[in-house]
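Re: the 331-residue chain
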Amino acid sequence: MEVVTVTEAYAGTYQEAYEVVVIGGGAAGLSAALVLGRARRRTLVVDAGEPRNAPAAHMQGYLSRDGMPPAEFLAVGREEIARYGVELVRDKAVDVHRDSDEDADADAGDFAVVLGSGRTVRARRLVVATGLADELPPVPGVAGRFGRDVLHCPYCHGWEVRDEAFGVLATSPMSVHQALLVTQWSKDVTLFAHTVGEDALSDEDLRRLAAAGVSVVPGEVVELVVEDDRLTGVRLADGSVHARTAVFVAPRFVPRTGLLERLGAETKETPFGSAPVTDETGRTTVPGVWAVGNATLLSQQVVHAAGDGYKAAATINNEMIMEDIERRVPN
């Protein structure tokens, strides 16, 4: 399969005015770009090449794409948008602002997006699909094994490690829920109290864990034990090692919403962290700006993000059609 890429050799071929600029080349951004391209909208995708699921060998639960490597999924998406004339540039959006009435060209659009390469591109509408970063517990071994045998989503990876010896690294009160959840995939589950501490678990927590067959081990985890490139155990501060072959963690989700903040988009607090306020189509509180995928709903899977992009793109296209018609209606 040919992988479509954009290199520096193409940098000078892009005109600077677009109808829509999509910032982010993951599932949400590519899905939006596909719909916009098919709607004959001049669209640019700015892809920094930082997909959240890059550490994973496969993605699951996406009908017709179950088990597909994430890199292959994105390569197919890039090929598809290219068929409809959508342009993709490998670059990073470092700033964005709304053009003032004095210096904005009506045909160039309302927004100026500054890229790391020094280019500035303009658009009538923006789709922010910059995703998020997973901030992992600072335990040696966790980052290096993340996406392999250190996992966070049983719907993504539970089947692949089913019936193995699970550990759950407690980093917040939500870790109890995670431990209870993963018992659907294995009956050998141990919750390591770690920084939360066994004393922080309520009597109700302990009753539910016991009913689910989850063991609770007090003490701080100091490292994961890896042998022959395989996770084999969890080492505590007292030196004891508990044999485990898969460990679930709950990362802190850090949305990449700096560009939205520069534009003044309102945010809200969710159980997973701060996220931009949007309507059901992804429209933010900034007119002309949509946010989709993990940039807005932090717990989304790939299939949800793709749907987000589709919905936003269709809404944008409909809005622009009506806007252009109204401009032609005689007073």
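The chain has a mean pLDDT of 90.
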